[in-house]
Amino acid sequence: MKGFPVLHQGHTEPWSERLPMPAAEALSEAQRAAAQALIDGPRKAVVGPFIPLLQSPVLMERIGSLGEYLRFDSALDARVRELVTCAVARHVGNQFEWVVHATAALKAGVSAEAIEALRLGRRATPLADDEQLALDFAIELLNHHGVSEPTYAAAESRFGRQAVVELSALVGYFAMVCWVMNVAHTPVKPAEGQPGLDAFPL
Question: What does pTM read for this prediction?
Answer without folding.
Answer: 0.92
